[in-house]
Specification:
With about 170 residues, the protein is an alpha+beta fold. The chain has two domains: about 1-85, Sandwich (ATP Synthase, domain 1), CATH 2.60.15.10; about 100-170, no CATH class. The chain contains one helix and 14 strands. It is elongated.
């Protein structure tokens, strides 16, 4: 069989003369031999095992993805993959990778939360200004004012808004 393991940005592995493949799905593990019927399977995160005559058994840690077998071609498309000859070494590599991803994910979530909060505050201020435009003070900024150590929300001004045919927009 001819095995290709594809990542979103590169070809991870391109192996010929593969004698067997063992993959994990949500329903359990299954094996592929050279003359098995064509199939498609949704892969769960786990270990993909393939065996060649020259390399022997090779273990690949894969993230979720899809396996497609057509004739002698087997395509495995996954988000991430790590290869190793020893399961202990592979486990250590996977743990290190996930710890790195967890730290990056936490920083991204923190930034996204700040952006969402900022957007919601701005949207609330806009809604407040557009629902009752007659109560707008004339000489105040729409930004946050900090006076004597206290934060105080300032109201928007009429001059800071422009009326367009399709709605009210900040100037």
């Amino acid at each position: 069989m001819h095995l290709k393991v594809l990542l979103p940005f590169q070809v991870f592995a391109d192996k010929t003369q593969v004698t067997r493949i063992v993959a994990e799905t949500r329903e359990g593990s299954f094996g592929l031999l050279p003359h098995r019927l064509d199939c498609v399977a949704a892969l769960a995160p786990g270990i993909l095992i393939y065996e060649t005559e020259t390399e022997g058994e090779v273990f690949v840690a894969v993230d979720e993805g899809v396996l497609v077998k057509t004739g002698a071609e087997v395509l495995v498309s996954v988000r991430r993959a790590l290869a190793g000859a020893d399961l202990g070494q592979l486990r250590a590599m996977v743990e290190k990778e996930f710890l790195t991803l967890d730290a990056e994910e936490q920083s991204v979530r923190s930034v996204m939360a700040k952006l969402e909060t900022s957007f919601l505050h701005g949207f609330a201020a806009l809604k407040k200004c557009t629902t009752n435009p007659t109560s707008l003070p004339r000489k105040r900024s729409r930004s946050w004012l900090i006076k004597s150590g206290r934060r105080r929300r300032a109201n928007c001004t009429r001059a800071s808004m422009v009326s367009l045919p399709f709605g009210l927009v900040w100037g």
